[in-house]
Design brief:
- The protein is of the alpha/beta class.
- It is built from 9 helices and 7 strands.
- Strands 3, 4, 5, 6 and 7 form a 5-stranded mixed beta sheet that branches. The protein has a two-stranded parallel sheet with strand order 1-2.
- α1 crosses α4, α5 packs across α8 and α6 crosses α8.
- The protein is globular, with a radius of gyration of 18 Å.
- It comes from Nonomuraea fuscirosea.
- This is Transglutaminase superfamily protein.
């Protein structure tokens, strides 16, 4: 197997001195993700608190080890201890998904982050979002779980999202190419520019990277992604995104790994 989803990756490896913090983690995948719900706070929620301005920079942290480091500087308790809101690390949906992956993988559970769009935050819109998948051996399927909304009422069963409630970037792209969705209803909440086909293209590539265990930040751009956002790419780039979408949907780790090695798609080493 080219990609081992049960082992840590570049952004999901914890430091050796952080491992005692996870000794008390539960073993059930849903309960592991519930732990993350108690230690990360979304920037929209954090903005309602009287936090120092510099705390908002926590949303830019890439490695899970850095996220845990920021958390334990606020409160050194083990990770299974739920923090009050002001002592949680500030992070986007990507933080929830990536940290969930890190904790699942450290327990030997195959897991991966997925980048795409949630259809349950705003009526008629698909909002830029990240979730986690874990492999359910008994049912022989990947289960999509939204750690950010566990315990909330945004979606009926965040521990096992139903088809269509979350679309990966590639899934959204395929629907767009078939003419089955309005791309202008897909985008980033709170922005006016990050909507439409370019955002779907971007999330298709970010999802490919996540399938290769490189969980980028939601606003990372590389290859021709910036040109795409500026409307400067053409049919050849769309054909490449077609290939990305089809490869991710086929779920062959060999094909995913092979495609990701191309210069247009691989996350640059200098950012790593």
């Amino acid at each position: 197997m080219v990609i081992d989803y049960a082992s840590p990756g570049i952004f999901t490896t914890l430091d050796a001195d952080q491992l005692p913090l996870i000794a008390g983690l539960p073993t059930d995948p849903v309960e592991i993700c519930r732990v993350v719900r108690g230690i990360v706070i979304h920037p929209f929620e954090a903005a309602t608190l009287s936090l120092p301005k510099e705390r908002m920079a926590e949303k830019d942290l890439r490695p899970a080890s850095a996220i845990v480091g920021a958390l334990t500087r606020l409160d050194a308790a083990p990770l299974e201890v739920q923090r009050p809101a002001h002592l949680r690390v500030v992070g986007t949906c990507r933080h929830f998904a990536t940290l969930s992956c890190a904790l699942l993988r450290v327990r030997g559970i195959a897991a991966r982050a997925r980048c795409g769009f949630a259809t349950y935050f705003a009526p008629g819109q698909a909002i830029d979002h990240w979730v986690t998948e874990y492999w359910h051996a008994g049912e022989r399927r990947w289960v999509r779980i939204d750690s950010q909304t566990l315990g909330g009422d945004q979606v009926a069963r965040p521990e096992d999202l139903a088809p269509g409630q979350f679309l990966t970037g590639g899934e959204a792209w395929t629907l767009y190419r078939r003419g089955e969705i309005d791309p202008d209803t897909f985008g980033v909440a709170g922005t006016t520019h990050a909507w439409g086909a370019a955002e779907i293209r971007g999330n298709a590539i970010r999802d490919l990277a996540a399938l290769c265990k490189t969980e980028t930040l939601p606003w990372d751009e590389w290859g021709r992604m910036t040109a795409s956002y500026e409307g400067k790419t053409g049919p050849d780039y769309d054909l490449l995104i077609d290939e990305v979408a089809a490869t991710c949907a086929a779920d062959s780790v060999e094909a995913v790994d092979r495609l990701y090695r191309s210069a247009d798609l691989r996350f640059p080493d200098d950012v790593r």
